[in-house]
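During the second year of the project, the team shifted from modelling isolated chains to modelling whole assemblies. The rationale, set out in the original proposal, was that interfaces cannot be judged from single-chain predictions alone. As a representative example for this report, we include one of the complexes processed in the last quarter. Its constituent sequences, exactly as entered into the pipeline, are reproduced here:
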Amino acid sequence: MVTKNDNKRRVQIQSSIRQTVWNYMRRNRTFRFGDVIMITGVSNIYLKNIIRYLKAVDYIIEVEKVKPYTSTQFTLIKYTGVKSPSFKGNTVYDYNTDEE
Amino acid sequence: MKEEFITTENYSHLYEAMQSLKGLPRTAPKMGLGFGHFGLGKTFSLEKIAAQENAILLRAAQTWTKSSVLTELCEELGVDTSGHSPIKYRRVIESLVSEPRIIIVDEIDALLRSTKFEVLEMFRDFHDETGIVLFFVGMEESNRKLKKHKHFYSRIVEFIEFQTIHKIDIEKFCDLSDVKIQSDLVDYFHKKFPNLRQIKVLLIRLEKYCELNDIDVVDLKVFKQSGAEYGDKKR
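Output from the structure prediction step:
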């Protein structure tokens, strides 16, 4: 039986572009930069930005830097949950842990 | 090489099957099965469709149990993961009824042993109770193995057999290269290399060779000269 509490605890997982990118990363913990672009359709700049944020908070690491950059591989080393973190200013907010 | 998704014949068939299932009425069975050998772009196609359709894409594992799948689904749907299996089951059902999502299960082969079939039966229950689209993908044998379970198999209304890569797909792929690939080389790729993953490696090696040697157009002869087929070690 689903209680009222369950419904309250329920969190909407939005199907935003950011969430689509995060979904790909969490399903493919070691991923190629170019593959994320191909699958999600985001721009190079947009993805570089997300990677920069996630690297800064040690969520992902660069496995190997290769040329061209699109062939560079990353690994998501800190997986906290299904919901995509949000990025604003110098802050990364993780909705899975409710931490900044 | 440009980073662009190629709409291969296999992908197109998969996409069309998904659209067809989505268009069926609520009460109609809406299960699909994709099967074929490795290296034909199954998983990459699924990733693309999952991104487009906001589908839940799961990869079946030998360690899956009903309970672990329920927890995973609760997570994916953003509902509470605590409690016993029947509670989680109801949460999943309620969530899928109020907000239907396509569920895709890749590597279904892991669930085709008799000891794991109860997990597949649970997916069938989700399908029957909520009317969601459920798509399974596995290796060549998965079709044959599923046939044995008639009550399950009868609900599968879309079948996609992944075929070896078509020449037109290789042409599209070669068009992404920084150098122009001539048709005799496309023919050679088609004859000798069964999947795009291998061809990609060849094209990357070839592009490096062309950059060093200031070459813009590559035919089979140049390709053979380049040694790209065998990599650095065997050149």
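Residues 44-56 of chain A form the longest helix (13 residues). Chain A touches chain B at residues 1-2, 6, 9-13, 15, 20, 23-24, 27-28, 34-35, 37-41, 68, 70-71, 81-83 (CB under 8 Å).
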